[in-house]
């Protein structure tokens, strides 16, 4: 199956269950009190980072994930059950973007890390909670809140511990095969490697190990999307250490400068990564050529190791250097995670706009259009019992400042107030 590192999916959190409008019924009790239970919470959808998965292939057969609705409340104060949550396993290194806003929803860089990507709606409250000394038989209950719905763009930014960076045919695949347990396809022409290939490198006689990635060869203009371009650079951005693989026979200093220019154009912080230079194919040139090339490369301020993947020259020294220089995963994760969008729900500010309409009697009617402040959402929760809930809602809106806001803009008694299409007459009770 082909390597898949970008995928778009839709996630829909479950709706909350409706609260119950019920009254206690018992023998010899003609008018029992309100006993409606609350609705259950809708299912929430999570992304979870797992190891052992190097592609988004497993999600290809399913592009839409919808969580269940919470059960409705029932009489006798019985609350509805919460719906089950959905957990979508994705590879470590997956970043989820809101496809509409472009904001980072989840950046999963450590195994087991989880993030809510579509929140389930809260359950509606039953009529039992609305009883008071002046409202002993409330004939209304709340509707459950709708679950969050969004389109996500998933991007796998490969988290290999060490990434091999080099031009096509620099010998990265051969070096990966020689250092690890990977068996990449190897051929003597450019652009052989079309997808990232991972291998595991183990310390001799020890349990310590790291993953090594042969990532598609870069070309000049990659940062502008040429060739494999941004696909290549996206994966480079997540490795803890870079190894510049340079062919000793092809002006390695010029190639290194060009490689670093591409990385700088894409993300200047990539040049701050721990890195070393593997001067490859030294078996194909005289030692004087290798020495001259090494002398030029040391001016870049990076360690230079002469190696030959084909003849197994210098591989033990390279392996030891990688283990010594590789930063810890924990420290890297703390400093490289992307900033995620806030979980805090932001309520739009209250706005009042005066409009005028001519009614059927030919009279001009003043209408105050109310948006923001959370008032439309509150009305939605009583959509089935609006007439019965009118008194409760009027008191709620007054407590939450709507009447004061209308007074400040010189609303008159008898003006119409419009909230989400629902209209009522304004009376100044003070």
TrEMBL record:
Keywords: Cytoplasm, GTP-binding, Hydrolase, Magnesium, Metal-binding, Nucleotide-binding. GO terms for molecular function: GTP binding; GTPase activity; magnesium ion binding. Residues 346-428 form the OCT domain. Its cofactor is Mg(2+). Its EC number is 3.6.5.-. It is found in: Cytoplasm. Its main location: cytoplasm. This is GTPase Obg. It comes from Deinococcus irradiatisoli. The gene is obg.
